[in-house]
Each structure stands twice: as C-alpha cells, then as structure tokens.
Amino acid sequence: MAGIKALVGLSFSGAIGLTFLLLGCALEQYGVYWPLFVLMFYILSPIPTFISRRLSDDTDSSSNACRELAYFLTTGIVVSSFGLPIVLARNTTIQWGACGLVMTGNAVIFLTILGFFVVFGGGDDFSWEQW
Q: How far apart are CA 36 and CA 114, in angstroms?
C-alpha cells in the first residue's frame, strides 16, 4: 500500500510541475511555446541512470565508473534544462516571468524524478523490467 501512495504522490507532483511549465507557455501575456523544449530533457534525464543500474554490478562497494559517468551525464542534462529558459529569456524569445514559471516546473519535475529513484530504486527485489 505504501508503494501506491508514493506513486500517487509522485504523479501528483509531476502534474504540478507540468502545470507550471504549461503556464509559462500558454498564459496570454507570454504566449510562446519555446519553453516546451525542456520536455526533451525530462525524457532524457533518467536514461543514463537506468542504463548504469542495468549494466553495473553492486558487488564492489567502491566507486563504479559506469555509475559515475551516468551521474555526470544526468547532471549535464539537468543543468541544460535549467539553462535553456535562461538563454531564451536573455535572448528575449520568452519573457522573464515565463522563465521563472518554467524553472519552477523544472525543479518540481526533477524532484519528482529523484523521488521515483529514491522510492522505487532502492529495494533488492525491484526489477527495472516492470517499468
């Protein structure tokens, strides 16, 4: 039952994050849909971690090069998703209010993705094939 509550909470926070993103695009005073390109970063961000957890073995307690590379790539993707709205706002493609809404949505979505890994990725009986 705890897994269902966590899943409902994660889906609710994901919906809030996407609402902030869409508000940054669709409000009448903003009206530009360029910030929706951060959706690409939302899709790409968990992929390196999925691959590293699939390929790495947890027998060694020291640092794993595959996992460290995955953390590095994931960090680059997350930083890029926060940088894109800033670059668009500095270029006056979008307004600064839309940039703030998109960055708020980014924070909520990435905390949701982190919450997914914390809640569902720690157990030994967990299998990535079920997702």
A: 21
